[in-house]
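A quick aside before the break. I want you to see a complete sequence-to-structure record at least once, exactly as it would be stored in a machine-readable document. Don't worry about memorizing anything.
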Amino acid sequence: MPTKGYKQSREHRLGIGFSGKGLKHPNRKRPISGLKRNTHKSWSSLSDRWYRVKYGITEEQYNTLLKNQNGVCAICKKPEMILHKGITLKKLSVDHDHSTGKVRGLLCHNCNLAIGYFEDNSTVVYNAYMYLNKVKS
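That is the input. The structure line, written in tokens, reads:
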């Protein structure tokens, strides 16, 4: 895939991840109508679109979940502590059921990874819980 003249970002799946004046993605027939990334409105629109496309919720619904959880992870009850690009704190991750797509809540990076490693299997999570309690006694 030729990428000369393109800067690819992780939002490329949304059709807005390539920047460059008048450029087209090599696999698209029409130019990409990119967002201007230096305006607050653009970032807000990108964030809202990301939540709608990826999880089926709006940014407002994300913020409602965040408020309902008092700004902390649904599992460990701690705020996010991982830095995004070493500068700002990451947002809490949207946790969802991979088979149904239903949003369950917001998790910190570490809890989200743990759930992923346990493959959303509650039996394995329970076994880990029992193991940790057995070791404590």
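Two observations worth writing down. The first strand starts at residue 7 and ends at 8. The radius of gyration is 19 Å. We'll return to this after the break.
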